[in-house]
Write a structure and sequence with these properties.
heterodimer; A: 287 residues; alpha/beta; 7-stranded mixed sheet; B: 289 residues
């Protein structure tokens, strides 16, 4: 064994015993992207156990190939748990459905720590370990990273427009507002998400679900909101947005790694807006 | 505050009245290099380095007015310092062997021991000491995170001195390419970029060209580019920094802009708009340059 390899081995094995983490992924209609997301969980450099709980909101037979994907040379114990959810009549895609599935997955988890990964996103290899380190350092029960935005084809998204606005002009205006606060940066695809407390006099409360690591007990106390109004639909306030507000309102201590360790790909329901047909109910209202 | 001995000229009089102590935060102060060491008579330096054992600047020999044996991190608390074979490569981040093993400097990053260290943030230091004119970061891979978490501190600075990786030498390091847009957005313009090289493993000196792996950069607040007006104390400090760093053209451009905006006394603006003023020796207290 070369000296460098000896050093690598020692360095990688020196992290000690670490808490198990459940990573929850809800998936529907894109098994090929799910495989990519699962690969990024398997490749985490976190030396503790990771249980990847994949909740399939879709026909099970579409996922037979993905289920055969196994991690190679993981940094710690890895387990996959597959759950096949069935929809009740009239249940449609959107934040209410996602929130119900997320809350159910949190209740079913048996680990102290819970993270999420959307099926079209990816973790960088140090995502979970850096979140756990941040939690240990700060004692916060909710910690989050930053993210880098990509188009579906992998091109970095550097357009001067907030992608989560239905109206493109409004998207550009909000981008400039958030740029003033250094959330968006010209020439960079990093979004510096944040959720400061009300006393910090900062209106920006924006953290994607996949950026978080939580103590499970916290999510049992402050779960994802399962009710969405027409106004929520108009303002594009999905479950992650409402969760941040609920956490801040509950006075939860929140810390940030300041590492953009989530690769966020555009193309999900929160940033893809098909033309609305007159007379039809908005896609994801529960009212 | 400082006696300007080149009495009589408008600039000397102006500096004597307007110049205040230049306040520097020096993160990773063990290896502090010029020009800040040369400017010491005009500076108050708050240093931080977890491998220093003393809070007494004079006893530590760092030249800092105050030196804390703490690490600066994005969050306060206790973290693990990975103490490397070359102490200058010690970091809160783990070495990234997938990158390092390709270069002959890899031995420097070998972790010899792990040390629990107290971490504080740039904002903690600012709360304790007030705002800083110069922020110097030599934090072994943590620069992006420190800048991102310290944007309020960065926003008040006139000059940044940042050593950054061009590759991910540490796990979780975000290299220079990501720092650059953040600092430009924060209102700074890069005026110096010094690439630093390492040989690929197996090659000897002089046998080949090699790629730059990290860099030393200096950034100045771009008042001209952003059409912003500093107060006269900030302007005086920035003029002096330009003079000390040898960036006469930057200082002259700033003087012309401030003169046009009536933000400097006319005789001072006129003198600083003249290249000759920048070639002269400025004598301020114990410092001349």
């Amino acid at each position: 064994m070369t000296r460098i390899k000896e050093v690598m081995k020692r360095s990688e094995s020196s992290t000690g015993v670490r808490d198990p983490i459940t990573v929850v992924t809800i998936t529907r209609g894109r098994p090929e992207l799910l495989a990519r997301a699962m690969g990024s969980v398997a490749a985490q450099d976190y030396s503790g156990p990771i249980v990847h709980r994949v909740v399939v909101d879709d026909a099970p037979e579409l996922y037979a190939d993905v289920q055969r994907t196994l991690p190679s040379t993981p940094a710690g114990p890895r387990e996959q748990v597959w759950v096949f959810a069935t929809r009740t009549e009239g249940e449609t895609s959107g934040p209410a459905r996602l929130a119900r599935l997320r809350n159910r997955a949190v209740r079913a988890a048996t680990t102290r720590l819970v993270a999420f990964l959307d099926d079209d996103n990816e973790f960088e290899p140090h995502h979970l370990s850096s979140l756990v380190d941040c939690m240990a350092q700060t004692g916060a029960a909710a910690v989050h990273s930053h993210r880098r935005l990509f188009l579906r084809n992998g091109t970095p998204y550097i357009e001067h427009r907030m992608p989560w606005k239905r109206d493109r002009r409004e998207g550009r205006a909000v981008y400039e507002e958030l740029r003033e606060m250094h959330v968006f940066i010209h020439g960079s695809n990093v979004i510096r998400d944040r959720a400061r407390h009300t006393w910090q006099n900062d209106a920006v409360r924006m953290v994607d679900t996949s950026e978080w690591l939580f103590e499970r007990d916290l999510l049992l106390r402050v779960p994802f909101c399962e009710e969405y109004s027409y106004e929520d639909w108009v303002e594009v306030r999905p479950e992650d947005n409402k969760l941040v507000r609920a956490l801040v309102a509950a006075g939860v201590t929140i810390a940030c790694t300041h590492m953009p360790s989530l690769r966020y790909y555009l193309g999900g329901y929160s940033n893809t807006f098909p033309p609305r047909r007159p007379g039809r109910t908005p896609l994801w209202c529960t009212e | 505050v400082h006696g300007v001995s080149t009495a009589g000229s408008p600039v000397a009089e102006w500096l004597a009245h307007r110049l205040d102590t230049i306040r520097v935060v020096d993160v990773g102060c063990r290896g502090s290099r010029s020009p800040w060491r040369e400017l010491r008579p005009l500076l108050e330096v708050i240093g931080c380095d977890p491998l220093r054992g003393s809070q007494d600047g004079s006893a530590s020999g760092s030249g800092c007015s105050t030196c804390y044996p703490f690490a600066i991190a994005p969050n306060a608390g206790t973290a693990t310092l990975h103490v490397a074979a070359d102490p200058d490569c010690s970091s809160l981040l783990r070495p990234n062997w997938r990158i390092l093993e390709r270069y002959n400097y890899a031995w420097r990053f070998e972790v010899e021991r792990e040390l629990a260290v107290t971490c504080i943030t740039l904002e903690d230091l600012q709360r304790r000491h007030g705002s800083f004119d110069v922020v110097k970061l030599d934090s072994q891979g943590l620069e992006y995170q420190l800048i991102s978490s310290g944007m309020d501190v960065i926003a008040g600075a006139l000059c940044l001195d940042v050593e950054a990786g061009l590759l991910e030498n540490y796990v979780g390091e975000y290299p220079y390419g990501m720092i650059d847009p953040l600092l430009r957005e924060a209102g700074f313009s890069m005026i110096e970029f010094r690439p630093l090289f390492s040989r690929r493993a197996g090659w000897r000196e002089g046998e080949s060209k090699h790629q730059p792996l990290w860099c030393e950069t200096i950034w100045l607040r771009d008042f001209v580019g952003r059409a912003e007006l500093p107060d006269e104390t900030a302007a005086a400090k920035l003029m002096l920094i330009c003079k000390a760093l040898g960036h006469f053209a930057y200082g002259q451009e700033l003087a012309i802009f401030l003169g046009d905006e009536d933000a400097l006394p006319a005789p001072v603006a006129a003198q600083l708009a003249d290249e000759a003023a920048w070639q002269e020796v400025w004598q301020i207290g114990d410092w001349s340059g």
